[in-house]
UniProtKB/TrEMBL annotation:
Species for this entry: Meiothermus luteus
The organism's place on the tree of life at top rank: Bacteria
Domain ParB-like N-terminal: 21-110
Record-given protein name: Chromosome-partitioning protein Spo0J
Pfam family name, one: ParB_N
Keywords tagged on the record: DNA-binding
Family assignment from sequence similarity: Belongs to the ParB family.
GO cellular component terms, A-Z: chromosome
Length: 292
């Protein structure tokens, strides 16, 4: 078993260990974390709890060699402790290398209760990328190839590879979903239009609604539907509205609309001389006809 998977397996037990020490807040240094945002209201609620009960779960830290400790897991508790006015917090000091620290940070992030589906998708991909030694896009490509082979769409012998076995083991350790459902329901979130991604990350819509809205290519119509989804439009109603829009999008435009679109893009100067004369003559005829 790789060091990353070993740390993943032992992370829960590690976090449950009693604090081995306390550290002054000034001694702690946040590391670049996979967490994208800290909700102010949630932090305030945690700060109130800390004022009343203290920090119940120790932070996982590692020494930096400069008299400081880098926060491996628990930055949210660190920030809330600052808001609560604490001077020190309980910590568990770990002796881990950078790769293991990154794995623990990713895993801790994935255990958050308020994790939204987009953050979860990126977190799982980053964890797999760390385990496989590949980039995020390469991991997504591998997952698609695995799914195609399992569905009989390709015979690339990917499923029996060591990489595929590592993927399956990481998903078993995570215990959140299968790799197949991850490919089907979560990978499409990576290609969401920016407005849908922001709404999803902000918790304004569920990921199922985001995936439905993604089907609508016409931006104005999609934005209007997004606002209705934010206001509480049910998923059933949303799906019906999307179906109607897709039917309209599938109807070909009248041929004269296409002609008008092509005329908008027309660059007369770029045409060969003889063709430009012909086009100009036709345009003058059309202009005269419309003028009547």
């Amino acid at each position: 078993m790789s060091a990353i998977r070993a740390y993943l397996k032992g992370l829960v037990e590690e976090a449950k260990r009693p604090a081995s020490s306390t550290a002054l807040l000034g001694e702690l240094v946040p590391r670049p974390q996979p967490r994208r945002r800290f909700e102010e209201a949630s932090l305030k609620a945690l700060a109130e709890s800390i004022r009343a009960h203290g920090v119940l779960e120790p932070l996982l830290v590692r020494p930096t060699g400069e008299g400081k400790y880098e926060i491996v897991a628990g930055e949210r508790r660190y920030r809330a402790a600052q808001m609560a006015g604490l001077a020190e917090v309980p910590v568990v000091v770990l002796e881990v290398d950078e790769r293991a620290a990154q794995a623990i940070a990713l895993m801790e992030n994935l255990q958050r209760e308020d994790l939204n589906p987009y953050e979860e998708t990126v977190g799982v991909l980053d964890l797999l990328a760390l385990e496989l030694g590949r980039g995020r896009e390469e991991v997504a490509s591998l997952l698609h190839r695995m799914r195609n082979e399992k569905g009989g769409k390709a015979t690339q012998n990917v499923l029996g590879s060591p990489e595929a076995q590592k993927v399956e083991e990481v998903f078993r350790l995570l215990g959140r979903m299968s790799w197949e459902s991850f490919v089907q329901a979560r990978l499409p979130l990576l290609t969401l239009p920016e407005d849908l991604k922001e709404a999803l990350e902000g918790g304004a819509i569920p990921y199922t609604a985001a995936l439905e809205l993604k089907k609508v290519k016409e931006e104005v119509a999609r934005k209007a539907l997004l606002e209705e989804a934010k206001a509480g439009l049910s998923l059933r109603e949303l799906k019906a509205r999307v179906r109607e829009l897709l039917k309209r999008e599938a109807v070909p435009k009248p041929w004269h609309h296409e002609v008008a679109e092509r005329l908008k893009r027309l660059d007369l100067e770029a045409l060969p001389r003889h063709k430009r004369r012909q086009v100009e003559e036709k345009l003058r005829e059309l202009w005269a006809l419309l003028g009547e």
